[in-house]
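Tip: read the tokens left to right.
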């Protein structure tokens, strides 16, 4: 499958309906291409995953949409405001970015750090905002601890609290769990899920598949160019033909005769690990006929199941394609 075939059409959204509209955006650093011809949109209240390996261009995209870097070409609208040098302050007031590393003052307390940033953003009601942000990340009881005394996971939560201070219309989270242990990762996932419940629009970059699959309404796969966009379940369907896996007690004498006559079966093969794998358009429609054919052939069925693919399979398929393309 080519990347052109793979990228689904997004149906021309307008900036009024979308928190982000990105059209043909490209960023070069000299002759190095960070990302190229990237187009997508993100609805209000959506958690949008930006998934890709290291060096794919995720952080550079966040920095561009966050007005920290000017794009080389293309356009974007962020929280309803067209991206330009002049509009950058207005955009920055409506968004926030949680960067890959938290960047806190380690000698200051949690509350002092937040206060510092709240004043930098020129926010009003600083103390009530700090209280709300700390409650949102379950850190109210650590307000007076120096940031230097916190674990990496808790520091990440302080960074998330900081990003919530200005009630952003769009929240950018750049690899929010990178380098965290499984427990801290789970905590951050729960916090993001809670923000999702509250309807916060989130642009989440990650190289972790299960994170994208678990937290995001839609996922875009980036590797300098955009390879795919869709709901996690759509991506799986789009890339893989559906199949039935049949395990039998003994090998079939003539599997071709048993399977080839079935109208619902497009193709069959025996997988190296043992079962017969049948490509079908509709597993539910095909399964009864397959079972009847096996019984008629006097074969004992051990199992007959639809094989499912994870987003990881989809992702690895794309990455492998890239590796193959690079060898040419
Ligand atoms: N300031 C910069 N100057 C030159 N090249 C850069 C700069 N920032 C990023 N790049 C390059 O752009 C590409 C994408 O980087 P990045 O956006 O950080 O990827 P990711 O966040 O997906 O790991 C990489 O090849 C990186 O080396
Ligand atoms: Mg990055």
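Filled-in amino acids:
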């Amino acid at each position: 499958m080519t990347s052109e075939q793979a990228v689904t059409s997004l149906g021309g959204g307008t900036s009024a309906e979308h928190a982000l509209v990105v059209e043909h955006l490209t960023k070069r650093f000299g002759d190095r291409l960070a990302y190229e011809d990237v187009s997508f949109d993100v609805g209000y209240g959506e958690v949008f995953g930006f998934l890709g390996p290291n060096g794919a261009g995720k952080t550079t995209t966040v920095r561009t949409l966050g007005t920290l870097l000017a794009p080389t070409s293309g356009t974007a609208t962020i929280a309803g405001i067209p991206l330009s040098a002049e509009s950058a302050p207005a955009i920055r007031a409506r968004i926030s970015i949680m960067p890959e590393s938290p960047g806190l003052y380690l000698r200051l307390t949690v509350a002092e750090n937040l206060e510092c940033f709240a004043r930098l953003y020129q926010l009003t009601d600083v103390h009530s905002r700090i209280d709300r942000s700390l409650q949102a990340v379950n850190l109210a009881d650590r307000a007076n601890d120096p940031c230097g005394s916190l674990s990496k996971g808790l520091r990440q939560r302080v960074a998330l609290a900081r990003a919530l201070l200005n009630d952003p219309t769009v929240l950018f989270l750049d690899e929010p769990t990178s380098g965290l242990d499984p427990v801290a990762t789970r905590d951050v996932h729960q916090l993001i899920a809670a923000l999702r419940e509250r309807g916060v629009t989130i642009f989440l970059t990650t190289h972790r598949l299960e994170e994208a699959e678990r937290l995001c309404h839609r996922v875009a796969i980036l590797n300098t160019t955009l390879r795919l966009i869709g709901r996690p379940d759509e991506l799986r369907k789009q890339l893989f033909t559906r199949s039935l896996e049949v395990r039998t007690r003994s090998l079939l004498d003539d599997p071709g005769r048993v399977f080839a006559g079935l109208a619902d079966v497009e193709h069959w093969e025996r997988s190296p690990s043992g079962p017969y794998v049948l490509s079908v358009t509709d597993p539910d429609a095909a399964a009864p006929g397959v079972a009847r054919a096996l019984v008629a052939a006097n074969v004992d069925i051990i199992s007959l199941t639809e094989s499912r693919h994870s987003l990881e399979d989809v992702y690895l398929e794309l990455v492998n394609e890239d590796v193959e393309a690079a060898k040419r």
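The radius of gyration is 24 Å. Residues 95 and 168 are 5 Å apart (CA to CA).
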